[in-house]
Every structure is written in structure tokens, then in C-alpha cells.
Amino acid sequence: MNECRYRLVTLYFLTVIAALPAHAEVTGKVSLVSNYLSYGLSQTQDDPALQFTTTWSGESGLYLSGWASQVDFGERTDTEVGVYAGYYKTFSDTLSLDAGVAQFLYEGTDISDDYNYNEVYATFHTSLLSLGLHYAWDYFGSGAEYTIVQISKKLPVADWFTLTLGTDYSLTGDENKYSILGESDYLHYFIRTEKDWIGLQWSLSLHETNMPESETDEARAVAGIGWEF
Length: 229
Hints:
By secondary structure, the protein is mainly beta.
């Protein structure tokens, strides 16, 4: 069943590529972050990570995006790759929608591809806030459903920098199949500043969760530097 799902997602990606016009815009970014956090939890055991993103965007709103990052799960899995196929629609100056499907792949050791999974996502952007939903039906290959709800607000601060405030709630559908460090759900909240300077993108963020503090889920500050092309 999982192999069939992966084939369907791959077919969808190829369909999106074929639908993109020849003059689709291509962008990319290379970044170095002091810690790779996924919804507040470190994916690198608090070590730095090199990350790469590239996106093909068509005038119709269809896009295909690729993502790669270093990870460290403690068993030699060292790379996460994400492929996104989606559609971005602007309804007005104050309302837009970003929705699609993603596939996450893992490399590094024989068991790494056991973690592969698909998800669907949708985010509404309004003048007040952004509201997002992510849903996976076989999260990290565990057979458990997994849902994430996100809320954030981006605030330009004069010409100096951009400030983002956000929170997200993660919930596993079956704690016996997949638990979040022993929990069935948790909250993550953050504040992030971003600034373009000397041709580079600089960021600094603070993250906290409502989980019991330990070596893997304590509050964190993350710094990042990126180059767009």
C-alpha cells in the first residue's frame, strides 16, 4: 500500500512539472542554521545543518519545490529530502491560499527509507494571520496519522527587519504506533526575526514547547544565514 501511495505522489509531481510553462521562474536558497528544528524539536541533536531549497513556479500558480537538509537521528540517518507539488492562489491583496502534497525521504543507512512518508498541506494567508494544516497518514512510516495546525503573524518593523510570531499544535493519531518523545501531542511557539543585509538573509529565532524539559526538547535559540539565487 505504501509503495502504491509513493507512486501516486511521484506521478502527481511529474504532472505538475509537465503543466509548468517553459518560462516558469526558478529560485533557490542555500542556508546554514545553528540547529535544524522541526516544530520546535531538533532533528540534528542540536548541531548545525546545511540546507538547500529550490522552487519552480509557473504563472498559473502551480509550483514544484525541492528541499534537502542534514539530520542526525542517532542511527546514521543523515539526510532529509522533501519534494513538494502545490498550487498558490491569490484571491485579493489580503487573502491567498497555498496547498499541495509533499513526500519526505530519508537517507544514510539501510533503515532510513523506513521513515519515508507523504503529507498534504494547506495554508491560508490573510491580513490578520496565517493558518496552516498538515496531515500525514503514515507519519515516519509508523502507520500512525499525524496532524499539525499552525498559526503565525508576520510583522514588518520599519525597514529594519521582519518579526514573526507563531505557534503550532502537533497530534499523533495513535500513540502506540508513534509518540512524540513519549507524548501524544504538544505545543510549540516561537518568535523569529529576519533581515536582508549585504546580499544575504539573516535570521534569529527563539523556540519553546510545553513538553517536559530534557536534552532534546528544551528552549532553543537558532541563528541562520542564507543566500538566495
